């Protein structure tokens, strides 16, 4: 077997989860690591924009490579697909579907996954990951459900004033661990809501999180607001939490 072929010796399942809260069915992609054994237990990574994380981020191949070549702890990955038409409404804290999406995640998705797969019950074994607005909703899920989530991977998170207001309203965030990456070429990022300086917004959010004593690993690197940048940074982000 060639070295490249080894990285495809894993399982990716497709499942459909009917949601009463969202009033629709949500597609899921579930990665089971090489050597997966139901008698063992695993940490889990929940990825917003599931289809993109798997197709453009190549997270399944990256995870397998890290496990086989770098002795990283095996983990299950759950990619939660999103409808582009309602993505901002669900992921942005001011979106009209945001509260419902967060409830879906905590009250329907987690029980569904943890009833079917051998995932550890500690909140430190659940990692939330997202790019851009996916990073935003990942942080807001942790802020809304600190008993469930305490670890977040943010790839160029879209952190604006409404997010900082929630951070500053918290008494203490020393329980929160975040891996924050921002590209230095992200000073004029065009979005459906306008053009934003993601570098400045992330620096201001970093200051807010530091003021609340969150545990942060903050990186600024040359890079654009694209999967071409984030894909190459995923191994380091995964290693940060999984060793």
UniProtKB/TrEMBL annotation:
<dbReference type="InterPro" id="IPR000801">
    <property type="entry name" value="Esterase-like"/>
</dbReference>
<dbReference type="InterPro" id="IPR050583">
    <property type="entry name" value="Mycobacterial_A85_antigen"/>
</dbReference>
<dbReference type="InterPro" id="IPR029058">
    <property type="entry name" value="AB_hydrolase_fold"/>
</dbReference>
<dbReference type="Pfam" id="PF00756">
    <property type="entry name" value="Esterase"/>
</dbReference>
<protein>
    <submittedName>
        <fullName>Esterase family protein</fullName>
    </submittedName>
</protein>
């Amino acid at each position: 077997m060639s070295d490249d072929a080894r990285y495809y010796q894993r399982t990716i399942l497709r499942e459909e989860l009917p949601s009463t809260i969202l009033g629709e069915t949500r597609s899921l992609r579930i990665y089971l690591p090489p050597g997966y054994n139901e008698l063992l237990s695993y940490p889990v990574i929940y990825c917003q924009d599931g289809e993109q994380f798997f197709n453009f981020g190549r997270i399944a191949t990256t995870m397998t490579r890290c496990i086989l070549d770098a002795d990283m702890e095996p983990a299950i990955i759950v990619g939660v697909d999103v409808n582009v038409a309602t993505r901002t409404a669900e992921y942005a804290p001011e979106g009209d579907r945001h509260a419902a999406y967060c409830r879906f995640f905590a009250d329907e998705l987690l029980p569904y996954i943890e009833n079917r797969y051998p995932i550890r019950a500690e909140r430190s074994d659940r990692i939330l990951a997202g790019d851009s607005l996916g990073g935003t909703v990942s942080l807001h899920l942790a802020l809304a459900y600190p008993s469930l989530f305490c670890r977040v991977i943010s790839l160029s998170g879209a952190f604006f004033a409404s997010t900082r207001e929630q951070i500053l309203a918290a008494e203490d965030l020393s329980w929160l661990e975040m891996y924050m990456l921002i590209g230095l070429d992200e000073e004029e990022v065009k979005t459906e809501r306008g053009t934003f300086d993601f570098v400045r917004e992330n620096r201001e959010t970093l200051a807010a999180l530091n003021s609340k004593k969150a545990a942060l690993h903050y990186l600024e690197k040359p890079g654009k607001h694209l999967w071409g940048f984030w894909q190459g940074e995923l191994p380091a982000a995964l290693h940060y939490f999984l060793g």
